[in-house]
Protein: Glycosyl hydrolase family 1
Amino acid sequence: MNLHIILLSLIFLSKTQAQDGNQFPGGFRFGVATASYQVEGAWNEDGKGENIWDYLTHNNPGAIDDGFLTGKGENIWDYLTHNNPGAIDDGSNGDIACDSYHKTAEDVELLKDLDVDFYRFSISWSRILPSGHANYINREGVNYYNELIDTLIANDIRPLITMFHWDLPQPLQEIGGWPNPILADLFVDYAKVLFDEFGDRVLEWITFNEPYQICHQGYSEATKAPLYAQDGIGGYLCGHTLLLAHAKTYQLYNESYRETQQGRVGITVNAMWGEPASESEDDATAAENYIQFTFGWFFNPIYASEGDYPSVMRSQIDANSQAEGFQRSRLPSFTQEEIELLKGSSDFLGLNHYSSYECARLTTDETTPSFINDMGVSYTQPDTWEAGASFWLKVYPDGIRKLLNWIKTRYGNPEVMITENGFSYAGNEQDLQDCRRVNYYNVYLEAILAAIVEDECNVTAYTAWSFMDNYEWLRGYTQRFGLYYVDFTDDDRPRTPKMSSRVYSNIISTRAINWTYVPEGFTACDWSTE
Ligand SMILES: *[C@@H]1O[C@H](CO)[C@@H](O)[C@H](O)[C@H]1NC(C)=O
Ligand SMILES: *[C@@H]1O[C@H](CO)[C@@H](O)[C@H](O)[C@H]1NC(C)=O
Ligand SMILES: *[C@@H]1O[C@H](CO)[C@@H](O)[C@H](O)[C@H]1NC(C)=O
Structure:
């Protein structure tokens, strides 16, 4: 073959590849994700400080489901009504978790075996800055992450680092946590340490994982540490600090690091798609408001051309606050300068997505502050959607395609990186032949591919949650999201590949979904029942 023909066939190949609706485009990247508290263990080793999950699980273990280990099962509503700190001492925790702190080499081998382009993990703030403050840096914590980063890079796997995935240092909780505005500056101090220590090798940063879960669930609804129930108040104060912490961190990177380190900084928000429960105008509005209150809350200030909180949040929370007799709105206001600082402060839109809701208008004459009343939406999932083990996780792949289109329309088609997506089995299920998880990945990736190829949504990466089974917050070890099975009753925490790990690996190497692919050592799934 002469050079001319080689060149022509190369052009032909890349064209057919680009036009093949069954294949992910060249340059599209695949990864897997975890978070520090959920996998690392080593909670008090090598100088690490205490964080809010160490504190919660040690002092209030009754809040954690641990059904399959102890026979006891508690749900979040039991917890809310029975909250009984310190009374129960057999709840599970992340003290050891997957013991990833001691398994860097083994875990990177598994990542290599998956053939991922990147590994998304989070840094434990308390491991780097034991008191939460940047006056003292724990070198042993820095060494651990240096080794992980270097081992990943040596194996051609890019680190995608989350700076904060829910494990706030306990001393910062004791000065109020995220509702205290000083936390924005303390976070920037922490981020600066990370850029200084790791930024020479890390090209992609996520400041926060899931602000809605951190703020609404942590400070309004009491379903995540620190389990505060300041409904309609704590969540908004937390969100305000967190957005400013993000924007200031972005500004710091943009002004002082981007030129030398050449990396990118983004933020990840979790969003359910909101489907109208009926054809009525009211329910269409309810669905839109659901997305604005849970997703727009954090992305409108960054991506909408006008910036600031979504106008529907501003108007409804202001009106409710006034009707309830408050002297000022429960939703704080940004200054004009802060609005400008936030606008455009993300190099990619990080999206975590698992499921959808059907939304209907909610009217109530309650006069106590409440996020749900502010939003004015009730949301449910139909029984006809297949259910995962998590009460909020039902399979509706159209939801992600619609959500990606919503982002494209509202925010001008920014680059989206899907930073989590996955399916849970109950913790006591030996789920190595995990056909329902394989089905989930296949149908969601098909929907994402359609959004890219047919709808021209600007999606550049996909991350499976999770690399391995891990500590599922208040659910303890009772729910498994992993591509690898972890035996938490074995001191050595052995990892065993599930069928989904092989199927995902095949998707990565072929860039395509193949329903008939049966990995070695597994049997074919019966898709007629799906
Ligand atoms: C980042 O810095 C560049 C160069 O200083 C500036 O032009 C740009 O506006 C900054 N971006 C944001 C979003 O602040
Ligand atoms: C995708 O996003 C990137 C980064 O914002 C942008 O440069 C590019 O133009 C976008 N692509 C499309 C097709 O809109
Ligand atoms: C899908 O997998 C089957 C079984 O391994 C294989 O025979 C077939 O060639 C694959 N299809 C594609 C398009 O790769």
Notes: The radius of gyration is 23 Å. Confidence is low (pLDDT under 50) at residues 1-19, 67-90.
